[in-house]
Amino acid sequence: MLQFLVALGAALVLALTFVRPDLCLWLWVLVLETSPDSWGMALLGREEMIALVKGFGVMLALALACRYGARWDKFNPALGFGAVFLAGLVHGLYPGLGLPESLRSLIGSVAPFLFGFVRLPPDIIRAARHALLAGPLACIGLGALLVPLGLSSFCAWQDGALRLGGSGEPPFLAAFALTALYVTLDLHLAAPRPRWVALALLYLLIIALTGARVPLALGFAACGYVLLMRGRVMEIAAAGAAGALALIAATPLSFVRAIALTRLGEATDLSNRNLIWPDFTAAFARSPWLGWGLGAGKLVVPLDAPLSRLLGTNAAHNEYLRLAVEAGLLGSGLLLTLFILWARRGTRALPPPRRGFIRLVFLLFALHSATDNTLIATTSSALFLWFACIFAEAGNGTRGAPP
């Protein structure tokens, strides 16, 4: 019955995509950013729910390509993941990793990049932007509604400090809010307006309440760039940043994790991420050139191992180590090269301030990847949808911001 309902839902969404593609995109982004893998596990398992959400994204990209046309995106990283998958089959997969599991990892790896192969018209780009801006707020709102049902904790406590999670988990809400902040700052560079300043401050506040340190630092770095480009208009954002720094010293707010960490001297702590990194380093050393195939990162540390139970996950929390294990030096080098060429080619038609900003976001994403699962998490689908919109807009010659 569940499979039938999923198939029926997929058929309805496919039909609706041809009638109202903008509405379908809105719905998919909102579902994605409300993290159904957290509150919907009563219906499906976590992995199955993630696969379902990503699968609808793949179907949506294909439907949009059928409606508006496809385009060849020669530097799209999805092509690199395809090459890594084939190299893994030639080399031999990690012990215990089967072909079906590796194929599922391939689909999950390329799914966030598929919108890059679609000719996105201005109305779809506008709908995607607005949905990405609304996503973090929807996550917070749904989380509040799910608390009485016992499906969401809304806030979590870690080491005596509060972390806002909404309907999902704090790191995911922080990543979605960071993407929304990038969208806001890009819109401000294209057409400066006070509302973009207000939204930027709101998303910074959300990230601070999640207690996610790296996204907060990256958000301030992105704001700093915009301040350099639009210093006079963004003085309000500078005042907000100064106010946030002043709050760090406020004793009554020490229950907020971003503030508590400064008081506990743990601002540079890696939350035990470094405990799992030696296992990935050892797996990489056994096959340094071609790696062990897509999906191998899930098996380096078994889920039932004491280390996995201690950390609550067996993920590397470092995409460079994970890719080193799965793709080796050759595959990782190929992917890194494609990312650089993809960003350069996609942004070269943008005006200088926006071109520099989008390239800065790619650099910030590369930094973020050293401490989080930025490519395999559902948050990447939102970020790379936005990148696809930016590249499509540049290719269409549409440089202005939406109304």
Helix/strand layout:
Blueprint: H1 2-19, H2 21-33, H3 36-39, H4 46-68, H5 77-91, H6 99-110, H7 122-146, E1 154-158, E2 161-166, H8 170-190, H9 194-210, H10 213-229, H11 235-248, H12 257-264, H13 277-286, H14 306-311, H15 319-347, H16 352-368, H17 379-396
Antiparallel strand pairs: 1-2
The count of β-strands is 2
Number of separate helices: 17
Q: Write the element-wise H/E pattern from the N-terminal end onward.
A: HHHHHHHEEHHHHHHHHHH
Largest sheet: 2 strands, antiparallel
Fraction of residues in β-strands: under 5%
Q: Percentage of helical residues?
A: 55-70%
Label the overall shape.
globular
N- to C-terminal separation?
A: 44 Å
Average residue pLDDT: 86
Widest sheet, order of strands: 1-2
Uncertain stretches:
none
Structural class, by secondary structure, is mainly alpha
Quick overview of this protein structure:
The protein contains 17 helices and two strands.
Could you describe the 3D structure shown?
The chain is mostly helical and 403 residues long. It is 66% helix and 3% strand. It has helices spanning 2-19, 21-33, 36-39, 46-68, 77-91, 99-110, 122-146, 170-190, 194-210, 213-229, 235-248, 257-264, 277-286, 306-311, 319-347, 352-368, 379-396, and strands spanning 154-158, 161-166. A hairpin with a 2-residue loop joins strand 1 and strand 2 (161-166). The termini are far apart.
